[in-house]
Write a structure and sequence with these properties.
The chain is built from seven helices and nine strands. The protein has one domain. It is 34% helix and 19% strand. The protein has 227 residues and is an alpha+beta fold. A hairpin with a 7-residue loop joins strand 7 and strand 8.
């Protein structure tokens, strides 16, 4: 895959000119009004970055990569739901997600969003390791923030056709998945009562598994969350 030479320059611009790490902290506030204001500001900044077409991967490049990405085999020894899913490729995407308009690697029409910085197909070892973590009870059980600014997307493919998506935000501490992950809601408050709810935020163990994968891939969370 072609390595985007502008990524490191873009990271520096994001961190020091636009001060997005500071924005991330604010956007993960429990105050919905604060979240709305910050989301609007970060979206404006993202729009300005999009004007530099050399930063983000093009739709055709992303489609072509799916066709040539290495295949893997589903591991039936994993926990639900990954023990029964049908797929032959998992591709990870490093992208500049926003609650609006880019909460996922794919938009509503199943087209790639125009803010993807990098893509890498997972090896069998990488896939088994991260799916084992995502389906483990030990990965979930802490709080989440009232925002969603994902930087990691995992897309599952079968015969080069999209099947499922998982989008992950470590700053807001949770994921959004097309498929139900039982472990994500294993810990419940007020269990059995009308006001029952799950505590689905990542634990320290869960965060480490995601960061470790991103370090292997040289993705954003591997650079920022391991320090």
């Amino acid at each position: 895959m072609k390595i985007n030479k502008n990524i490191d320059k873009y990271r520096l611009t994001r961190n020091y000119i636009f001060l997005l790490p500071f924005i991330f902290i604010l956007s993960c506030s429990d105050n919905p009004k604060d979240n709305k204001v910050v989301a609007e500001k970060s979206t404006e900044q993202l729009d300005s970055l999009k004007s530099n077409n050399s930063i983000f991967l093009k739709e055709q490049e992303l489609k072509n990569y799916v066709l040539t990405a290495q295949t893997i085999t589903p591991n039936t020894n994993l926990n639900s739901p990954f023990d029964t899913l049908s797929y032959d490729k998992i591709i990870a995407y490093d992208f500049e997600g926003r609650e609006e308009p880019y909460p996922s690697v794919l938009d509503r029409n199943l087209k790639f969003v125009p803010v993807i910085l990098n893509q890498k197909a997972l090896t069998q070892k990488q896939a088994d390791k991260i799916l084992s973590a995502l389906s483990s009870n030990s990965t979930y059980g802490e709080g989440t923030a009232a925002c969603f600014i994902p930087h990691l997307g995992l897309l599952f493919f079968k015969d080069n056709k999209f099947k499922y998506a998982i989008n992950i935000c470590l700053d807001c501490n949770y994921l959004i998945s097309d498929i139900t992950i039982p472990a994500e809601t294993h810990l419940k408050v007020n269990k059995g009562k009308e006001n029952e709810y799950a505590i689905s935020g990542f634990t320290k163990t869960g965060k480490k598994a995601i960061v470790d994968l991103c370090k292997d891939l040289n993705f954003y969370y591997g650079r920022t969350k391991s320090k």
